[in-house]
Amino acid sequence: MSTLIAKQALRGLARDRGVALLAAILAVMVAVSAFLGWSATQTVNAIYAQAVGWLTAQGAPVPPNPLHEMPPLASLRNLPVYVSFLGAFAAIVIGQALVETDRRAGVLPLIGTRAVTAATVAKGRMLALTVATGALMSVAGLVSILALLTLPIQMGLADWFSLAAALALGWLYMTIFGLLSLGLAARLPGTAAGLLAGTVAWLAITFVLPALTGNVNPTAAINPVSALASVPDMPVFHWLSRLLGPVSLSEAFGWLEARAMGYLPAGLAPRAPLPLLSLGLAFAASAAFALHANATLDQTGGPDA
Amino acid sequence: MPETFSSTAQMATIGLRDAREALRDRFVLVAITALTLAALVSLVTGAMALHGDAATYAQAKALLLKLGKDASVIAAPELYPLKLLRGTIEQIEIMGAVIALVAGYRAAAAERGRQTLALILTRPLAHWQYLAAKLAGGLGLAAVSLGVVFAATALILPLVSGVGLAADDLARLAIVWGAGILYLTGLYALGFGLSLWARSPAAGLIAAFALWLLVVLVAPQIGDTMDPDNQVAGGIYAQLSVPKAEQDRIKAGFATYETIRGGIEQASVTKHFERLTFAVLGIKDSYTGKPLGPILAEKSGDLLVLILFTLGLGGIVLLRPIDPDRLTKEN
Question: ipTM of this predicted complex?
Fold first, then answer.
């Protein structure tokens, strides 16, 4: 029965223009990210070549090219950034739409009359969400593969496995916010209230927590290189990093993606000791919240329906 | 509202009703608190990091002097209090923009949700007057929210930096406040317009958020990412120890690349707001300590874009007639 509900929910999502718009933007930006990374790397290499000429003429020591050892996947270093805001926001919109569409259409009381438990309906919506975010990441993956095959980049077998790991992490990260929004939309009956609450949580995680744990400003937080900064060597930042690191999900995600794609600065420690565990626990917590909130959803739709 | 009221009084009535409504459901309070907290978090963490740099410098200097060496070989960290507002401005750029879009959405959704829009339009009131009242409400909300942010900043800045603010500093803050009002009012108009015109206000909000992602996050992020100096931690030129004159010569060879990068950045109103405010506050090193007059003259183009952005969006909202099929929550 959960599968049937998931199918019905997915059919509704497929008709949603907002979701289609965000999916299209994500696909385009993934392609752009590949070109950007490649183009920026080429430019840095050209700058290095010119600097080497000048340094040699001056008789100064020539340092190694800082990008020389970069693996091919580093060209896609903007991918995690776009997943962390375009993908996460698309997941928030999907989570909200899964409940709002039924609520606004007046379908909730109708579902309540069927011989199906509220928990089954909740599981159906969660299944639909995970499939939808999986489809989004599949589109992103397909575009990434096409971009990598098109650009003059040499990919080995290990690089393709790393790309698969990076995409799987992206799906996990997006789905955390989607499940959170699914739960919030069920819990908050006001129009777009779930969307707004989910967006506020995402904003705080993306732009406020990095400032507290590592003095990373908002613009730096969405730059794949600047975001990978060490914790300032002060007791207060070490303390804040220890305290908030486990919930600073965007930093955990950025660190894991940088490691998977090979552009993590040498010796840079994550904010929390086990970043994958942080994401795993956040996934479990948001899934439990989404399940509980949807299983106890007011079937009348609430006062604003 | 009696029909004998002047059009100004009618507009004021609509604006005041919106203000009362916003205060009653605590939206304004929550929005102001969230923006102020985010802005102050960035300010305080920036100040703490700077104090850390100062302490490290003092320790290094003491060690050099103890060893009988020249302490001038290490550069002392410079303290310009307004430079600490980098994170605050960035929070206004991003979080302030979201709050403005949501406020615009609410202004449209509230009327459509309660079916009051159709009722108001039965009164002898021109559409543009009603829309102007709504836009004025958004401008007021932006002015109050940012007023609280900058008032709190002006109070806390001397405490965290240890340096008092001069009249010139306060004037700079006032200019940035004005620029912020323009920026947020434009985004409010965008959120309001899309939520008014869309099939459902929620669809309008999603479209507004999609535009926000592209204009506020993606376009500046592309420009920032394409900067070769941002490809390497610490900067490519710093890592290669290339002096400024040679950097400029090398950069001249990448004029096309830089033109494309600059063009992408300039497509974003957020970047114009940032360039203007970073220059006025001296956050960008090349403007630090410079007098205000020449900075404003140089940045008049960015100010003009901000004004045109807000007037343009406000004008579109005012001139586009209200669709009789979009008076309620769902169509």
Answer: 0.77
Per residue in B99-131, pLDDT (tens digit) is 899 888 888 887 776 777 777 777 777 888 888
Q: Spell out the domain ranges in chain B.
A: 11-29+90-149+164-326
- Which residue, A262, A250, A269, A272, is CA-closest to A87? A250
Contact A89 B254 (CB under 8 A): no
A66 close contact with B: CB closer than 8 A: yes
Identify the pLDDT of residue B276.
Answer: 96
Q: How far is CA A64 from the centre of its chain?
A: 33
**Does the pLDDT value for residue B264 go beyond 90?**
no
pLDDT of B327 strictly over 70: no
Tell me the C-alpha distance between A105 and B49, whole Å: 52
Work out the minimum CA distance from A118 to partner chain B, whole angstroms. Answer: 26
The pLDDT confidence band at residue B258, using thresholds 50, 70 and 90, is confident
Q: Cβ contact (<8 Å) for B222 and A237?
A: no
Structure token digits, residue A146: 């096409």
- The set of long-range contacts for A111-115, using a CB threshold of 8 Å and a minimum separation of 24, is A111/A299, A112/A299
Distances (CA, A) of A157 to A65, A137, A138, A162, A275: 25, 20, 19, 9, 26
Q: If 0-12 CB within 10 Å is exposed, 13-18 middle and 19+ buried, where does residue A112 land?
A: middle
Return all residues near A125 (Cβ < 8 A) that are at least 6 apart. Answer: A5, A6, A9, A98, A99, A182, A290, A294
Q: How many angstroms separate the CA atoms of A272 and A258, rounded?
A: 15
Residue A141 phi/psi, 5-degree rounding, is: -65, -45
> Rounded distance, CA A299 to CA A200, Å?
26
User: In this complex, do A40 and B246 lie within 8 Å of one another by their Cβ atoms?
Assistant: no
Domain boundaries, chain A: 2-295
Which of A39, A55, A215 best probes binding to B when mutated, by most B CB atoms within 10 angstroms? Answer: A215
Mean pLDDT of chain B: 84
- Which residue, A236, A242, A251, A238, is CA-closest to A282? A251
Q: Is the pLDDT of residue B273 over 70?
A: yes
Half-sphere exposure of B126 (CA within 13 A, CB side): 9
67-96 of A, contacting B, C-beta below 8 A: 67, 78, 81-82, 85-86, 89, 93
Give per-residue pLDDT as tens, B217-239.
Answer: 888 878 777 777 776 766 777 77
**pLDDT tens digits along B286-310:** 898 899 999 999 999 999 999 999 9
Residue B129 CB neighbour total at 10 angstroms: 16
Chain B hits for A29, CB-CB cut-off 8 Å, are 218
Task: Supply A35's token pair.
Answer: 């070109």
